């Protein structure tokens, strides 16, 4: 079964054409927005999707992942008159940084959002996989795993290597069927995952790359990219 995921954008940090990488995922009856970079809010407004979101997951605090979060929260509060939106994070340091950022921009954060550290009872089917320091030094970050009785979905966030759980013995077998949405780079850089480094999992999971420009992919690339069929 194909997961109900649509990428609002699938490009790299400065790729305005493809937009900041972010996704809408419907899971267990909830619609999650994963990340809210500076190109995301306008696209959600254009599509009439601002009110459809039930919770947000934030992978890390770079601008291409949180740059329009306050705009979205203001819109929901003042225009849509909706209650505070759950904003899920996976590490206490990420929670503290995100709260401080929102407090700086918005003042009384609790009017607009509830910054929740996973695990959380209401979202028991979402777990965070800490990846702090693997995207950039001193940058708290996490991947997210969504699980149901029929499907598992791993969303990597930005990370300079395959999400480490993939290398744990038995982890992939224990999470079948598994869909992996992973950041990719087509040249070796410390901040994003080199596409060929994901090849070992191509036969064991449905692996899809995002956070890239398909035009930069070499002819030899074997990794499917979300741009072909998971865009909003
Ligand atoms: Zn980043």
SSE layout and pairings?
Layout: E1 4-9, E2 22-27, E3 30-34, H1 40-46, E4 55-57, H2 63-66, H3 69-79, E5 85-89, H4 92-106, E6 113-117, E7 126-130, E8 142-147, E9 152-155, H5 171-174, E10 178-183, E11 206-210
Parallel strand pairs: 3-4, 4-5, 5-6, 9-10, 10-11
Antiparallel strand pairs: 1-2, 2-3, 7-8, 8-9
The chain binds zinc ion (ZN).
Give your account of this protein's structure:
The protein is α/β, with parallel strands linked by helices and 232 residues long. The chain contains 5 helices and 11 strands; from the N terminus they run βββαβααβαββββαββ. The chain has helices at 40-46, 63-66, 69-79, 92-106, 171-174, and strands spanning 4-9, 22-27, 30-34, 55-57, 85-89, 113-117, 126-130, 142-147, 152-155, 178-183, 206-210. The longest helix has 15 residues, at 92-106. It is globular. The model has no long low-confidence stretch (mean pLDDT 97).
- The helix/strand class is alpha/beta
Percent in strands: 15-25%
Ligand inventory reads: zinc ion
Percent of residues in helices comes to 10-25%
Q: List the domain count as a whole number.
A: 1
What is the CATH top level name? Answer: Alpha Beta
Quote the average pLDDT. Answer: 97
Low-confidence runs = none
**What composes the largest sheet?**
6 strands, mixed
- The name of the CATH architecture is 4-Layer Sandwich
Shape: globular
Q: Please compute the radius of gyration using only Cα atoms.
A: 17 Å
Q: State the CATH topology.
A: Metallo-beta-lactamase, Chain A
């Amino acid at each position: 079964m194909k997961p109900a995921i649509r990428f609002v954008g699938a490009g790299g940090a400065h790729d305005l054409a493809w937009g900041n990488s972010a996704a809408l995922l419907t899971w267990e009856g909830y619609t999650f927005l994963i990340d809210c970079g500076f190109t995301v809010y306008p696209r959600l407004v254009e599509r009439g999707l601002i009110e459809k979101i039930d919770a947000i997951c934030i992978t890390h605090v770079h601008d291409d992942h949180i740059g329009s979060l306050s705009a979205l929260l203001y819109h929901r509060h003042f225009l849509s008159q909706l209650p505070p939106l759950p904003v899920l994070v996976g590490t206490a340091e990420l929670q503290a940084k995100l709260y401080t950022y929102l407090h700086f921009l918005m003042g009384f954060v609790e009017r607009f959002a509830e910054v929740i550290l996973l695990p959380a009872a209401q979202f028991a089917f979402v777990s965070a996989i800490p990846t702090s320091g693997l995207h950039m030094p001193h940058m708290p970050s996490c991947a997210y795993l969504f699980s149901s009785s029929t499907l598992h979905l791993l969303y990597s966030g930005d990370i300079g290597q395959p999400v480490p759980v993939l290398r744990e013995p038995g982890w992939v077998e224990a999470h079948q069927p598994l869909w992996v949405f992973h950041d990719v780079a087509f040249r070796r850089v410390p901040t994003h995952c080199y596409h060929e480094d994901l090849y070992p999992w191509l036969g064991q999971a449905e692996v899809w790359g995002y956070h890239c420009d398909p035009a930069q992919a070499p002819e030899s690339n074997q990794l499917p990219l979300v741009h072909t069929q998971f865009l909003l």
